UniProtKB/TrEMBL annotation:
Residues spanning the membrane: 29-50, 62-79, 91-114, 120-138, 145-161, 167-185
Name this polypeptide is given: Transmembrane protein
Entry superkingdom: Bacteria
Signal peptide: none
Protein keywords: Membrane, Transmembrane, Transmembrane helix
Ribonucleoprotein among keywords: no
Length: 196
């Protein structure tokens, strides 16, 4: 490649193109963690609900360990793909830290829940709804703010549901909290990328 000096117009165009490409590449994979964790959570909750109805054994709750085993690698795959395509900005780092804190707290509470001292089917949607809302606030993305806020409110409904049906309510909350905004974001990002 030939080295030559760029004039002001060419330099500005190059910078603008690089910024746009970085935004497009980051945006292209932004919805995948929401969809991966949302769908995996819903599927695992329904499998546990069904298994409990068939067996009556609370040991089916060990199937929850499938959640991070499935969604974690999917998230890492897309994070690596996304990481190769641009630099993380401040909002990405803050959002990542929000999910890290809420994820670690949720994981710790999930382990304690095996002793039956924590109503995990109430607390996890509450915590994840708060993380979704905060992520939406930080990124100024209204569908996530709305979905997270609705999920926080819906998490309280689980306190009034008894038996295995609590798992279905839990799954429904994750549809609202992660799957719906994930698909909205994915669609918007595809449209943004196709315009440029």
């Amino acid at each position: 490649m030939e080295d030559r000096k760029l004039n002001e117009k060419e330099s500005l165009e190059l910078i603008t193109r690089m910024i746009r490409e970085t935004q497009e590449n980051v945006a292209r994979y932004a919805a995948y963690p929401l969809l991966a964790w949302g769908y995996t959570t819903v599927i695992v909750a329904i499998v546990i609900w069904y298994a409990f109805l068939q067996t009556g054994s609370y040991k089916v709750n060990y199937l929850w360990f499938a959640l991070p085993a499935i969604a974690g690698p999917i998230t890492l795959y897309f994070a690596r793909k996304n990481g190769k395509r641009g630099v993380k900005n401040y909002i990405d780092r803050i959002t990542g830290q929000i999910w890290l804190v809420f994820g670690v707290v949720g994981w710790a509470l999930s382990l304690v829940a095996f002793d039956g001292k924590v109503d995990i089917l109430f607390i996890i949607p509450l915590l994840m709804g708060m993380a979704t809302t905060l992520s939406g606030c930080v990124s100024k993305y209204k569908p996530m703010v709305i979905a997270g806020s609705v999920s926080i409110a819906l998490s309280f409904s689980i306190l009034f549901i008894h038996g295995a049906d609590r798992l279905l309510a839990f799954a429904a909350i994750f549809v609202v909290m992660m799957i719906i905004p994930g698909h909205i974001l994915n669609k918007q990002m595809k449209q943004l990328c196709s315009k440029n």
